[in-house]
């Protein structure tokens, strides 16, 4: 007869409830709705929701879509501030819905959610991103080298890498570009995001097409349309110093012209 040996007791005693209950609160979520198949007019829709201290605006939108109105339309993918697909105007400011905690907003007032400005609205919170990506493609956002392909990686010093480190953080969410007053009124302007991504390669010591990109941006719709309002830097969810990058590109054009 085999006697089972009892499993030793855990050395860590966990309480029945770790951390206690998460406090809840009530919010009113107002979303700017637009459905071209129904009407040419946009309108506001609102819901009263019970949310929790760990919830973000994206969680509130999910709650509405899954439990109240499945026709509410918005983009989202990773939900962790990496893909950049859920950029929208929240209480009048461009933000990522997945990074904006409800408790950090004034929940005593309705939370207003609208599509980002300056791009055609397709439905509800979804805008047509093609004009944005067209500008991005025009600045050639890829490494261009005139030499032969190396047999191993292209080496670069830490100092050279640091020169353009900030602008490598862009996730193409369009929060900066769609916060720019110039972009709102001039759809031909390249916009901050395109200039930021040009900066990333202009100052990369491994790239040989910096002059080409500077020529592209030395245009009436290029860097000189920037009015330095700092909206773009404030809107960037990754903390990129967008206005500084634009100023550095301007300086590079002037230095090249001398």
Describe this entry's structure for a reader:
It is a single chain. This protein has 258 residues and is of the alpha+beta class. It has two domains: 24-127, Beta-grasp domain (Ubiquitin-like (UB roll), Roll), CATH 3.10.20.30; 130-143 and 160-257, Alpha-helical ferredoxin (Fumarate Reductase Iron-sulfur Protein, Chain B, domain 2, Orthogonal Bundle), CATH 1.10.1060. Helices cover 27% and strands 14% of the residues. The strands form two sheets. A five-stranded mixed beta sheet has the order 2-1-5-3-4, covered by helices on one side. Strands 6-7 form a two-stranded antiparallel sheet. Helix 2 runs parallel beside helix 5 (192-202) and helix 6 (210-217) crosses helix 8. The radius of gyration is 24 Å and the shape is globular. 33% of the residues are buried.
How do the helices and strands line up, and which of them pair or pack?
Blueprint: E1 24-33, E2 43-52, H1 57-67, E3 87-90, E4 93-96, E5 111-114, E6 121-123, E7 126-127, H2 130-138, H3 158-162, H4 181-185, H5 192-202, H6 210-217, H7 231-235, H8 242-257
Parallel strand pairs: 1-5
Antiparallel strand pairs: 1-2, 3-4, 3-5, 6-7
Helix pairs in contact: 2-5, 5-6, 5-8, 6-8
């Amino acid at each position: 007869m085999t006697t089972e040996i009892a499993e030793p007791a855990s050395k860590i005693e966990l309480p029945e409830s770790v951390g206690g209950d998460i406090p809840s609160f009530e919010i009113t979520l107002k979303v700017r709705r637009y459905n071209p198949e129904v009407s040419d007019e946009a309108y506001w829709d609102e819901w009263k929701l019970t949310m929790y201290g760990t919830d973000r605006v994206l969680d509130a939108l999910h709650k509405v879509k899954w439990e109240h109105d499945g026709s509410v339309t918005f983009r989202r993918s990773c939900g962790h501030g990496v893909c950049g697909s859920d950029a929208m105007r929240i209480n009048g400011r461009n933000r990522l819905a997945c990074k904006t905690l409800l408790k950090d907003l004034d929940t005593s007032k309705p939370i207003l959610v609208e599509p980002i400005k300056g791009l055609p609205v397709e439905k509800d919170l979804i805008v047509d991103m093609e004009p944005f990506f067209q500008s991005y493609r025009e600045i050639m956002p890829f490494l261009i080298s005139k030499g032969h392909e190396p047999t191993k990686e292209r080496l670069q010093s830490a100092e050279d890498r640091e020169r353009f480190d900030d602008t490598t953080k862009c996730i193409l969410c369009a929060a900066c570009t769609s916060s720019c007053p110039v972009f709102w009124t001039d759809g031909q302007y390249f916009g901050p995001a395109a200039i930021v991504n040009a900066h990333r390669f202009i100052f990369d010591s491994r790239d040989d097409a910096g002059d080409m990109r500077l020529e592209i941006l030395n245009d009436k719709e290029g860097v000189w349309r920037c009015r330095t309002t700092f909206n773009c830097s404030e809107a960037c969810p990754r903390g990129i110093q967008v206005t500084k990058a634009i100023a550095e590109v301007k300086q590079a054009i002037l230095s090249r012209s001398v």
